[in-house]
């Protein structure tokens, strides 16, 4: 029946198949190590899209709250510790000062392996079953974590779960402000320690993390769902979803 339909217009079915094949994008898996040409089958956004999408991410309230809250109430304390360890043990040689970082390295590795992504996935699975099989991004927010470094896993998994189709943009947003907070810290931490002393410098930082950092996470836990529901749906998606 289809053949008679096409023949009625003077077009053979075989030629229509060829037309359909010709219009499909020519996909490939053979790419050079350094590729400067557009990838076939993918829509390529204009050059300014990276900046505009970064700015538009501010319209998704849970993203700036989570990222800026973590970066400027929590993560900068991590950099304070790393920056000030040599000054705290100035009487030791540079070799010994370097060895003092082994404890931080081992602790970070243990926390990442045993208390990071795999554990987070298991906890979310348990919480989803308790919630009738419904999984929400706020399940990624922990009340207690193993060390301050684990906050990276908590925040990144939360923002990606909140906007999985825009994961590239939200991770870029996260990386920019995380590095800004790390960049700013060394400019004032040494002067702060010189004027206030070791005890009050780091006690104050601990109180900031305890009060402000915990407040950010509690706010997201309580209001995150409503904030996401009230936000405008992003007008873009990752390249892999836009082909």
TrEMBL record:
Signal peptide interval: none
GO cellular component, as recorded: plasma membrane
Chief place where the protein resides: membrane
MF GO annotations: transmembrane transporter activity
Keywords: Membrane, Transmembrane, Transmembrane helix
Domain of life from the UniProt record: Eukaryota
Its membrane topology: Multi-pass membrane protein
Subcellular location per the Swiss-Prot or TrEMBL entry: Membrane
Transmembrane segments: 51-68, 99-119, 139-159, 171-190, 202-223
PANTHER family tied to this protein: MAJOR FACILITATOR SUPERFAMILY, MAJOR FACILITATOR SUPERFAMILY (MFS) PROFILE DOMAIN-CONTAINING PROTEIN-RELATED
Protein name: MFS general substrate transporter
């Amino acid at each position: 029946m289809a053949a008679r339909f096409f023949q009625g217009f003077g077009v053979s079915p075989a030629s229509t198949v060829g037309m359909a094949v010709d219009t499909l994008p020519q996909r490939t898996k053979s790419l050079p190590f350094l590729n400067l040409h557009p990838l076939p089958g993918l829509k390529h956004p204009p050059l300014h899209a990276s900046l505009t999408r970064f700015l538009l991410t501010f319209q998704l309230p849970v993203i700036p709250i989570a990222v800026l809250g973590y970066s400027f109430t929590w993560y900068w304390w991590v950099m304070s510790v790393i920056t000030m360890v040599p000054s705290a043990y100035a009487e030791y040689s540079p070799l010994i000062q370097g060895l003092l970082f082994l404890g931080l390295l081992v602790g970070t590795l243990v926390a990442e392996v045993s208390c990071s992504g795999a554990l987070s996935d298991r906890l979310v699975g348990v919480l989803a079953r308790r919630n009738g099989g419904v999984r929400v991004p706020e399940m990624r927010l922990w009340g207690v974590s193993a060390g301050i470094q684990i906050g990276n896993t908590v925040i990144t998994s939360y923002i990606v779960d909140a906007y999985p189709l825009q994961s590239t943009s939200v991770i870029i947003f996260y990386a920019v402000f995380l590095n800004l907070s790390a960049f700013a810290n060394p400019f004032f931490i040494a002067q702060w320690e010189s004027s206030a002393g070791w005890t009050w410098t780091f006690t104050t930082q601990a109180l900031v993390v305890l009060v402000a950092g915990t407040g950010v996470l509690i706010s997201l836990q309580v209001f995150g769902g409503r904030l996401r529901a009230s936000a405008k749906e992003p007008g873009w998606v990752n390249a892999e979803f836009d082909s």
